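Q: Fold this one first, please.
A: Sequence and structure below.
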Amino acid sequence: MAVFRSIGRNIPRLIRHPGRALRLLSTRFLPVRAILADPLAYHTVGSWTFGKLPRVDITQAFPSIEEAEIVLVKPLGANAETSVTLHEMAILCAIVRSTGAKRILEIGTFDGRTALNLAANAPSDGTVTTVDLPADWNSGLAFEVPKYAINATGVPPTGLKYRDTRYVQRVRQVYGDSAALDWSTLDVPFDIVFIDGCHSYDYVVSDTQKALGSVRSGGLVIWHDYGMIEDVSRAVDETARRIQVRAIRSTSLAVGFVS
């Protein structure tokens, strides 16, 4: 409603300056410049295309989370196309800190920045197990995945951000295909499973099913790229018919609450 009130107040100004109004509307509805010049900004607010879940503020999903004091370690320099945003990182860390999660599983390590920050905000005896394909991956996958959906990054061990930090002992790196791995060997049950691996539908469904079977009662399954990637959004929407799932406002995170 606030948006419509703002538009109403500005109608007289737009009528007086039609040229400026046209430029303004064209950049808002066709944000090509933002996409090219600042993909991270567009990634944050411009790509909510899919998904049926209403978005809620993080404090609605976690009523006391605003009291959480978090630590951010090496949070800057993330890849705008593949990484969680700084705001999403802060929310993930706050969820870990406010819930006291000790056992965390991440599907999709990439450069290890998220694993590092999850570990930094977990209790001192907590562990983050993070799974990714090895740098020398031979392109074989458990499921057939369209080329556009393959997001293997092949970051070598030397490039992982948690290395050479005081949190390295809290991170357990596992290499393999998440759909082919036996998750029972991954220190189950987990308090939180964060799914940000292959974004094709079959993989998201597989990771979700395994996550639901590997998280403790009262634990959480969190997905990245909800609303942005169709296959992810479809799988999450289907999961929301079975458990409570909240899509978090101003992010592409969706949180499932396992009873």
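Q: Good. Now the second chain.
A: Here it is, same layout.
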Amino acid sequence: MKRTSPIKIQTCATSTRSCRYREAPMYRKRILNNRVAETMNRPYRTFILYIVAAATIILGLYYLPDYFLLEKATAESATFLLNSLGMNVQTRIVDEKVFLSDVKIVKDCTGVQVIAVFFGMLIPVPKARLHKKLLTLLIISASLYFANVLRIALEFSLLHLHILPWSIAHYPLSLLLGVVGVLILVLVSDRLLPEFGDYLFSFVRPRRATD
């Protein structure tokens, strides 16, 4: 009877130690699972912040400034180009409204909505130097301005020469040229600022978390 008690105590102690060894890996596995879940959710929180910042910049640039000077510059540039081609075109300003002959030039005619979108997409990109962002945006903005002047001159020429009616020369042709131009500028921006493409593709194929 005296030998059984110590044996029982020793057996219980041994079983307790073995239980600890069995429980330790399960506890570690739970910690790793929590870390993996937290790491996998982090890119999506970053993406939400990126979307909020981009939307704020786009809406602010599109709605807040007064683009009368840009409308005037666009109309005058198109006027110079058309007159260089032998047409007699004048820029008129009536009550702070800009006209290219009898065609009204409004904010959307300047392409500022596309410029605002590029500003909103490129400015919040992390891990990219500010001077590279500004240089890319400067090149894109200048390219958009001159391409938009060419577009307006082309549409006005087709209308003036009675090749296409305004309903076709303005909207379908403008939409087609705009889509092609935006695709080209996206490729140019990815070339000038490769961090932009890398950042967007990182959300499509997120990396697996490692301990």
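Q: Anything worth noting on the second one?
A: Confidence is low (pLDDT under 50) at residues 7-16, 35-40.
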